[in-house]
Design brief:
130 residues; alpha+beta; 2,3-Dihydroxybiphenyl 1,2-Dioxygenase, domain 1; 2 domains; 5-stranded mixed sheet; 4-stranded mixed sheet; 21% helix; 38% strand
Length: 130
Amino acid sequence: MTHQFLSAISVVVPDYDEALEFYVGQLGFDLIEDTTLSQTKRWVLVAPPRSTETRLLLAKTDGPRQSEAIGNQTGGRVFLFLQTDDFERDHRKLISNGVSFLEEPRHESYGTVAVFQDPFGNKWDLIEPS
């Protein structure tokens, strides 16, 4: 039987270290790998604590076309979904770490959710399923 999963999702960022400050420093993600590939490129993977499969690949822009995509990789829609087992705990922690929420928490049929934004303009859902 075949086993497949998404191992990484690229997030275009203007600077590796600035992205690490947010994803590791503010969101509390783990730094999985930071390998220098050349003078201008690194392989930088981050993931939520105890995440076992999908990672975010922080991909520094390479030219104006990629720079234009920063923060708008989904045309303004929510891009990434951070699922939690305790919305209130994580919502409070993210706010205290300076994460910018775009709305108050909502209770929907599928769970509790609030949209936040990374410093680059990407929209995220913090969500605790029902």
